[in-house]
Amino acid sequence: MTAFFQVENLRVGFRSFRGRKQVVDGVSFTVAAGEKLGVVGESGSGKSVTMLASMGLLGSSAIIKADKIELRGRDMRGASGRQWAQVLGNEISMVFQNPMTSLNPSMRIGEQISEPIEVHSPATPRADLQATAERMLNEVSIPNPALRVSQYPHEFSGGMRQRAVIGMALSNAPAIVVADEPTTALDVTVQAQIVSLMGDLSTQRDLALILITHDLGLVAESVDRVMIMYAGRVVEETPVANLFDSPAHPYTRALLESRPATGARRGRLNAIPGFPPTSADAVSGCPFHPRCAFSKDREICRTTRPALTEVAEGQRAACHFTDEVLATPVGATVQSEKTEKRAISQDVVLNLEGVRKSFGAVNALNGVDLQIHRGETLGIAGESGCGKSTLARVAMGLVAPTEGRVRIMDTDLAGLEGRALRAARRNVQMVFQDPTSSLDRRMTIRSIIAEPMVIAKWKKADIARRTDELMAQVGLGAQFLDAYPSEMSGGQRQRVGIARALALEPDVVIFDEPTSALDVSIQAQIVNLLDDLRAKTNAGYAFIAHDLGVLRHVSDRVAIMYLGRIVEIGDVDEVFEDPRHPYTRALLDSAPVDHPDLRRDDAFKVEGAPPDPANIPSGCAFRTRCPIATEKCAQTVPALVALSQGNHRAACHYADDTERLAQLTDGPKAPAVPG
Amino acid sequence: MTETFAYLWHHRGGRIGLICLTFMVSVAVFAPVLAPYGPNEQLSGSELMGMSAEHWFGTDLLGRDILSRTIYASRVSLTAGALAVLLGAVIGTFIGLVAGTLGGWADSSLMRLSDSISAFPAILLGAAIVAILGPGFLQVAVAIAIAQSPLFARLARAIAMSEARLEYIEAAESMGASKARIIFRHILPNAAGPLVVQASLSVGIAILMESGLSFLGLGVQPPTPSWGQMLSDSLRFLDFVPVYAVVPGAALTIVLVGINLVADALRDKLDPQSKQKAGS
Amino acid sequence: MLRYIFRRVLQAALVVFIVSVVVFLMLHMVPGSVVTVLAGTDPSPEMVEALTKRFGLDQPLPIQYGRWFLGAIQGDLGTSPISGRPVTELILSRLGFTIMLAGAAIVIASVIGIAVGTVAAIRQNTWVDTTITAVNSLVLSVPNFWFGILFILFFSVSLGWLPSGGFRGFDRAGFGALAYLVMPAIALSMDSAAMIARLVRASLLDELSRDYVTVARAKGVRARRLLLRHVARNAAMPVLTVLGLRFGQMLGGAVLIESVFNWPGLGRLTVEAIETRDVVVVQGALLYFVVIYMAINLLVDISYGWFNPRVRAAVGGRV
Amino acid sequence: AETLIFGQTATLPTLDPYNLSPAHEPINNTLYDALTRYDDQLVPQPRLAESWEFSEDGTALTLNLREGVTFHNGRAFTSQDVANTVEHVLDPANGALIQSFAKRITSVETPDDMTVVLNFEAPFPGVFDLLELMYIADVEASGDFSQTGIGTGPFALASHASGTATNLQRNADYWDGAPTLDGIEIMTVPNQQATLLALRSGDIDMVTELGYIDLVPFTRDGSFVTGDAPSGVAHDITINSRSAPLDNVAVREAIDLAIDRDRIARLLFGEFGQTLCLPFTEESLAYVAAQDDCRYDLDEAKTVLEGAGVELPLSLRMLTSTEVRTEYTTIAEIMQADLAKIGINLEIENVDAVTYRRRYVQEQDFDLASHAYGRAGKDPSSLLETTVVFKPEGNVSGFSDASYAEAVTQGGSTPDNDARRAAYAGASEFLRDSHHVLSLVSRPRLWVTSEDIEGVSFSADGFAIFQNATKAD
Ligand SMILES: Nc1ncnc2c1ncn2[C@@H]1O[C@H](COP(=O)(O)OP(=O)(O)OP(=O)(O)O)[C@@H](O)[C@H]1O
Ligand SMILES: Nc1ncnc2c1ncn2[C@@H]1O[C@H](COP(=O)(O)OP(=O)(O)OP(=O)(O)O)[C@@H](O)[C@H]1O
Ligand SMILES: [Mg+2]
Ligand SMILES: [Mg+2]
């Protein structure tokens, strides 16, 4: 394999008014023709900067040094803007994380797609440009390209936009594509579509692909070789299989162990203690040593920076003790015991009956019946916009349902107003997705946690006592009491949010995607904390999440939502192992696999994106994307009924028709009944 | 507070602004010490003198020292500006927060009211209000405050609405916090940054407006000097004391430079997102 | 789209109504009435009474307002007791001047502002940028009317190049009439030019820091095309808003510049009408201001759509 | 094509000649003619009336009108127009400034087209003051004459845009010979400064109503001609003597003594300034030299004030309005400085013109007021009988004195000049001793024209007359 793109000893720093900050420190990599390289690392580890610097795309505040930047034999070190412009979009191109911001909102899609050709071969006739744009849209599977080329980005859904961006990156037939977290902003089902699209295209075109991601699942799913970055350095570089079976660097290993898996329920997650350093030069020696389980405070880790050394064929790691690491089997560092299952009482703490909620034409909830019992955790999953947050808000009495009833313990929220409503609300508390915006940035942690008690008119002394108690409970040191949220990390903020929610000992706590803004290692801390809390309190929990792994890990029961309805609900293991609604199947099959060996071609990948909630299809809302749908599905809304066996209900006419469901794997992928 | 000053001092524009502003504020505070003559001291026989050693910038028709009057006039401009903005900010912010938080009927009627005020050209609105209240320092301050209040109302409303979208407001609601608590305990402190920036910019606008009204003869009562009124006065004496048209204008400009630079620097610190909306 | 415009117009109508009631009440709160002006310096009580009656000022306020309102919705804004002429005619006689001055000023401000702002943005963090930013800050702080005074001192009094004020119509002075427009238009445009330059710089830099710009560069797009094809349109929005608002303000009469340069615009008409308690003229002028204000705001919003297809859809989507 | 451009700060709203606001001054004798007009010796000269005669008892005036005079619309001028004009003026709803004075006309007879008889209750020696200002307009013409400006004057209206410019064009059929100028443009300039700049840059040809300071630079400049004309206007301080402490004559006297009339005259009008102690100028029938005896003496003022039995320092409010006249406020400021020295703190209330009038005339809400009155230069009768400052009943100062009222009536209704003089002497004495109204300085009409303008003259009220004006090319 010839090196297509080769970078050696890349160092990047940024000038700012506070001085210089080193962000990338000695990164080298090569990509061969047709090779798929994954770049993995936590947020801030320098993944994007590395690639942008290698492509001459960083602004003037960056100081870039490298021993070699070679693109198809051409030395690009110190290249001028003009020289880069000749190469970019021509030989190498890029796909960014956020499809909305990477498209120019005021330019037609077609123009943007054909622009690489237009700038590199200005003589190309307009008609050809248009034709190319249409062809590209077709290639990335966007229906009706002739119409779509003349549309603007806002007329595309998120998944379509990302397809368009990919089309744009490929339109001038580059040899290398760099994709920076291309699916992070997308739903699982769409993510699965995009991942397989990229895989197909790169195989067809023999592209070299550099895929930046923080999701180990994606790596397992789609690349050949992986490069793990930590604090601006490469800590390990390995063929993808070795990564999961024999990681040679403690960090790689910790990443793997902190990750809840969809496939099986495991014990406690292995949270990586501490936080990543703020810059590449903030920690001496091995940058990972303060958090490393193997370092054991050994001198060499603190003083000497380990070099990348070969540990197996094609596998190199930057650790002084790779032997020790390799000798320990994966999972051995994990405390295997999971918190013992709690006794779920039959007490219903939260009861929703026939709840509907519409915002104007948008029908966010279309008849939801749901009970949460004291002591259980109900997981709720579903794609973006299916009404999860709305459900949470209705349950808390923050918005009144358009129809239906909400009961908290024995209080019916309907008809309550003012003070009484406010008092009733206190029995349901919520932990929000965004740990930053859910805390008032002008308040100290102490007053944030104390606020519910202040409002409930507790005595000062009681408040102080309870605040200390809560801080301890969520594992925050007292030194944080007088800090402001901005002085804390995301995970710590989320703990504050949890402490606040628990302050009044509510009967129900709703977690609305509490970990999706966090890095895996931090996510594990929060998930573990939840495990502990469930053992110590006896509230009912609702846990909303995108990540099915997390959901499987924390839930006793799960509910799967689609377009404002619950389509399947039941015991968590049962639902994950024997899903009976095609949509549940789609969700589970779309989730990235846990190990490269589990890659399979026959996974059920559903087409398209959920319909607009303002325009819900008749009958079963999923029928437009369902390969096994029939006439009946278009006419009758399936009820959420108990299945013939197990503790499990599903809203599908064919939930008990296992033969029919089996078609989902190998059967036709297009919907049987056109929408 | 000290931190803010330190920040301003290390900000390129902020430092110049701070110097200009400190200079003019000291001039206002120490006017009796600095001014060589009383502001209303009429020196019979020295009327309309040009620049001289006794009167650096000459004297006016009544033989009053122009430098001394310019110095004393800083008091009017600065206090009128500050007072007007304080009033306007309090009224406007309150209206905006209430409108933005309550929404619905209260929002649209309060905002129509604020629209109605902004539809008037500010100086004309000022002229009309002064016509009702009569000329005078307080009246002018009130007029300017009314003209400025929609700016604050709109800003406070926008902040209230964007804050209301943040989850901490929902969190507070779920704890059973009342609307009033949400407005005053949560939204107001978070709105403070942008509001302070707006207020600092508004002081400049207010001073400008005060000088405009005075220029039109609608400002403070004679013999109290104000820059606008001096400027309009000066035009009659261009032939005798041309520098008269320059001195009050320059003083006004120094104050405005100071305020604008400080406001810009404050914006960089307190309200960095709004940087690009510098025009509004 | 039409529905949207219709809704906005309804809102504007509401504002106009509120304003007219407020103004009406306000002007009746103002001590003294047009009769005080008309009755002269040595009025007899009988004269005051007769004049009050003649102009219907003895009627209860709601009736007076009702009369004005009924007239207004039929397009009759009443007749000014002071000048004896229909208000519409008075306003129209000044409107041309106001539009001429505001138009010239906004053109100057946008040409200078956009050019200077773009240069500053392209040369970000160089001495050119620093100088422009400093000059901008200074210009923004100089009161327009003082600029006017300094211009007159310099160009009319000292150099005698330009007339100090007033206006000879194009009918009388031909293109020489432009000489009267130069100084007031420039003086009026100074701070707007500086503000627009600042805004153009800021929004260009803001746009240039966006992902799609990096994407475009990753496609091999070079600076010139980047600026013209990609950034300009998106950066135009905030600039357009401010331009619109500024133009609206200028159309609302630049009273100070008008009085410095003796420009017969609407601002002065209004000030005079306030001085003489000529309620109907003030009402009429304010009606005009509100309409202009609302119209400009609406136009700005609509033109957003032209620059930003997303807004176009949002606006059009309400059909 | 010679058009004289006349600049003025006051807005000319209508062309109604009876309004007599400062803005109307250039149009009155231009669009309109009166029956008679004073010459510079204050002797009435024929205009639309060719000759006149008082009846034996002085209660009727017969005027023989000029033949062949036509209005701008071509209609011939007759005695009926005089009758109509009188009727119009007398209707209070028309707001004519001369209405109260005109009320001395009890009836009008029109024995034939060219003769008109005015009847009075008592002899009316001051009638020519009235006739001077009773411009004959075609009040019956279709259309509002206040908009069309139809009179018989040397110029006719071409266009009128209130607040910007009014254009007049030569009346080729003028009975007294067509004027030389092709036209006159009266331009409204929002402030004095702008006027002066426009004058200097040649945008306007003529300005009147200037302060001395405004005039000085032009006197030194060869391309301009400057001059003064009497205006009949004089500045005064009106004292509201209704309540304490100003009901105390000693306080008023102290104030009088604290006024530096010379400085005021010098600062406002330079060498043209003429101080006044009495309401009248030296040329007036009512002038008494012996009583022209006011002084500026702060020490004495202080003594008088201390002896007045009031608690010092006194706080008084002084009403002024820069919008009416800048000099009002200048005077107030000068007085403020002087009064401070004798223990009176003067608070200046500078209000807009309408408020000024309301508070000065209607509500008499002031302690002192800076003010100016007209008609000081002509027959004393109209001044004393009708102005709000001096009329015996209902004057703004609030004084009322039987002997004064008697003297004013006497002086105004006796044909005999000596008898009038004697009567008015009594009035003067009262005014001097009681210090209700302190006359300060007569106001000359200072004017500037560019050097190519010649032949502009002024009426006794200081109104410009353009009939014989020329403009060199
Ligand atoms: N233009 C810049 N100026 C200064 N610092 C920067 C700049 N761009 C990135 N950084 C810093 O460089 C470090 C690495 O950033 P980078 O974007 O490469 O991280 P990443 O690994 O891509 O993270 P993420 O997963 O969040 O995208 C971060 O600490 C970031 O704050
Ligand atoms: N206040 C609101 N006004 C109008 N529409 C709303 C409102 N809140 C939610 N919606 C709409 O209701 C639908 C459901 O929204 P919701 O936030 O409950 O989805 P979600 O499942 O929480 O999605 P995500 O995973 O993106 O958080 C969406 O189409 C959303 O646009
Ligand atoms: Mg990144
Ligand atoms: Mg949500």
Task: Characterise the protein shown here.
The complex is a heterotetramer of chains A (675), B (280), C (319) and D (473). With 675 residues, chain A is α/β, with parallel strands linked by helices. Chain A has 23 helices and 25 strands. Chain A has three domains: 3-223, Rossmann fold, CATH 3.40.50.300; 248-327, no CATH class; 348-427 and 506-666, P-loop containing nucleotide triphosphate hydrolases (Rossmann fold, 3-Layer(aba) Sandwich). An eight-stranded mixed β-sheet of chain A has the order 7-8-9-3-10-11-13-12, with helices on both faces. Chain A has an eight-stranded mixed β-sheet with strand order 19-20-21-16-22-23-25-24, with helices on both faces. In chain A, a hairpin with a 2-residue loop joins β1 (3-16) and β2 (19-32). Chain B has eleven helices and no strands. Chain B is elongated and about 75 Å long. Chain C is built from 15 helices and no strands. In chain C, α5 runs antiparallel to α11, α9 runs antiparallel to α12 and α13 (266-275) runs antiparallel to α14 (279-307). Chain C starts with a helix and ends with a helix. Chain C has 319 residues and is mostly helical. Helices cover 30% and strands 25% of the residues of chain D. The termini of chain D are close together. Chains in contact: A-B, A-C, B-C, B-D, C-D. The interface between A and B is medium-sized, with 27 and 17 residues. The structure holds adenosine-5'-triphosphate (2 copies) and magnesium ion (2 copies). One magnesium ion binds at residues 47-48, 180 of chain A. The site of one adenosine-5'-triphosphate (ATP) has 12 residues of chain A, from α1.
Which structural traits does this protein have?
heterotetramer, A: 675 residues, alpha/beta, Rossmann fold, eight-stranded mixed sheet, 23 helices, 25 strands, B: 280 residues, mainly alpha, MetI-like fold, 11 helices, elongated, binds adenosine-5'-triphosphate, binds magnesium ion
